[in-house]
Design brief:
Elements lengths: L5 E3 L5 E2 L12 E2 L11 H20 L5
Antiparallel strand pairs: 1-2, 1-3
The protein binds zinc ion.
């Protein structure tokens, strides 16, 4: 499992961008895995990742390598 998600410290949205939030331009940080419960952290993470990927794909159409 690779931790691709970043979380904006300004608006709190998850994103795949590593430099800045695509929604508000705020600073992004790697979310702490401890936020997710031990039992379902991967399920929660995958769910968040999937929703972000769907959203950013439909927003920008940008391709990722
Ligand atoms: Zn933001």
């Amino acid at each position: 499992m690779v931790w691709l998600l970043r979380k904006c410290i300004k608006c709190g949205r998850y994103t795949l961008k590593r430099d800045s939030c695509p929604y508000c331009g705020g600073e992004v940080r790697v979310p702490h895995p401890a936020r997710f419960s031990p039992d379902d952290k991967y399920a929660s993470y995958k769910s968040a990742l999937r929703s972000v990927m769907d959203e950013e794909d439909s927003n920008s159409g940008e391709r990722r390598g």
